[in-house]
Amino acid sequence: TAQFREVVGDSYNCHLGNGTWWLGVDDSLRLTSADGDGIGEMNGRIENDSIILETFYGERFYLKKAQPPGPGGELCIADLYGSWQMTKVEMEGVQYDARERGMASTLYFETGWSEYDDNEYVLMGDCYFAEFLDTNWPEYRQAFDLQAEFVDKPLIQGLSNEIWSVRLSDPNTGSEFYLTLTDPSTLYVQEHYGPGSARTVRTAIYERTESFIPEILQTILYEEPADCLTFYWPNPPDEVSVPLEAMPVTELEPDGLDRLLLVGCWYETQICFYTGEAVWDDNGILLDWITEEVLYDETIGINDIRWFSLTIPEGEPNLCLYIKRPWEEYGYYWPLTDTGGYLVNGWMFLTP
User: Fold this and answer.
1) Residue 80 near residue 148, CB atoms below 8 Å
2) Mean pLDDT over the full length of the chain
3) Is the pLDDT of residue 234 over 70?
4) CA distances (Å), 133 to each of 61, 151, 234, 244, 308, in order?
């Protein structure tokens, strides 16, 4: 058996797992991926007791005989690739359900360009963390483009991975934590927290998820018009909101009664929230918005998720969402009210 892994570039997405070895009509050695994709096929030969495999794109892999790896050796840093959700947290040797402790966290790993590591493509991580979610004052932390560094020692004695771990660090702040895989779907993460000499080690367990975005939300986004710029959903159900609890919430007004979920559907879109007053024509079509105060002004990208806390007014709106594509001189106003949406001419850019 053999396993092929690649962290750098797009080859990781074409890796061969559970492949089938066979001989071609010319007695050449072949390896075909389990899905039978011709692009995932390798031609091979044996030279000097080594196997040489070549991909459809001309990439070559050289293999030699080796002893079976120890526990954890069948896994590698490339297996971190993808999305992870925290399910349990361990404190003073006791494991708790993370959500019952008012905590949530999401880790997402992908390959990216690192200016800190010889300007090469490396595996990088994004982290979202929230605690005190069971109170009125949740706290949120997030970090992006964390550098993943292989460590040649186990994270914790007694885990099924006895060989290696990973140091995940932020080059800008110096913050770091350590993690390891115990199987392809289970991730252990250790973080040191607390002041000075009283710092404590907190261990959390993460489980692999299919995607960063919940499945029900993926389905709805897939059904949106191709020219949709921003997806809009007030007070979505638990199956949408719970997997996204680690995402920070922007408080647009104190003690807001409603949650508003925005998801970017365009590569880059300016989003703003304004207080003020709408100007209508005799047919009830929005003509303009008279702005009093700018509450929020940021750019949202594709599949970028934002939470907002506010109170959506009944009847006449006093708050609106403004969105604008970068090359257009003018954008679109969307008054926020629970009495229904308003007709917006031009491209479809959001849905109630």
Assistant:
1) yes
2) 82
3) yes
4) 48, 33, 19, 12, 15
Alpha helices in 50-132 (DSSP H): none
Q: How confident is the model over 255-289, as pLDDT tens digits?
A: 889 999 999 988 899 999 999 998 888 877 778 89
Encoded tokens for 203: 């261990």
Contacts of 40 (CB under 8 A, 6+ apart): 14, 16, 32, 33, 56
CB-based contacts of 145, cutoff 8 Å, min separation 6:
112, 114, 124, 126
CA triple 203-206-208, angle to 5 deg: 160
Lowest mean pLDDT among 117-121, 253-257, 326-330: 117-121
pLDDT attached to residue 106: 96
DSSP β-bridge partners for residue 197: none
The pTM (predicted TM-score) of the whole model is 0.79
- Dist. CA 185–CA 209, nearest whole Å: 8
Residue type, 200: T
According to DSSP, the β-strands at 305-310 and 249-251 are parallel
Q: Which two tokens mark 193?
A: 């927290």
**Cα→Cα distances 169→46, 124, 145, 247, 316, Å:** 41, 10, 9, 20, 49
- Based on C-alpha coordinates, what's the Rg of the chain? 25
3-state secondary structure of 177: strand
**Rounded Cα gap, residues 241 and 138, in angstroms:** 15
The dihedral over CA atoms of 222, 225, 228, 230, expressed in degrees to the nearest 10, equals -40
